Amino acid sequence: MSAHILLIEDDLNLLELAKYNLEQERFRVTCETDGEEGLISAKENPPDLILLDWMLPNLSGIEICRRLRRENATKNIPIIMLTARTEETDRIRGLETGADDYITKPFSPRELIARINAILRRIRPALTGATLEYAGIVMDTASHKVTRNGTMLHLGPTEYRMLKHFMENPGRVFSREQLLDSVWGNDIYVESRTVDVHIRRLRKALNINDMPNIIRTVRSAGYALDKDS
Hints:
Elements: E1 4-8, H1 12-24, E2 28-32, H2 35-44, E3 49-53, H3 61-70, E4 79-83, H4 88-97, E5 101-104, H5 109-123, E6 131-134, E7 137-140, E8 145-148, E9 151-153, H6 157-168, H7 176-184, H8 193-206, E10 215-218, E11 222-225
Helix pairs in contact: 2-3, 6-7, 6-8
């Protein structure tokens, strides 16, 4: 599954243009036009990267960035600030608040995509390659083949998508509801307990030849792919 981008921007024309170009590059995009709603979205469904406008209704981009950096669950999410402010002092302020990059408006879609990919390659290289690797598990996303310590694994389609999502986000805990949205999609109704069934199937496939369990259950929170589980 491709990287999830949260776009917080109140200029509707720019928002639609950016969303279109991001989706053409196969990013999953969530859009918010209000500062407070954007902050809530970032906390409830942490994305892989945030595109954050400086001037927003109800809560500024600078304040959103400051609050996200204070919380463990969101402090490491890459943030690119989008703003019409061109003064050096403004750029420095944005970076000192915790932004990873800074793009002044107007900007070209090609520049935006290049900046995003540069950060993802640095922060989360697994999201930009055709092969995902974690703790002896190797997933070739082109051929859909998965091995663990050299042994071929046989996964059903849902277990494959679930493992891919975990490998794109190693160590991160996902609730059943988040896994339902990411693996099954928002438009399909599935009972949350169905996640438990597929977790058991995935564990069985991964634990071939008595290999150690690598999917951690976090009580009252969800599941994570964790080599130290």
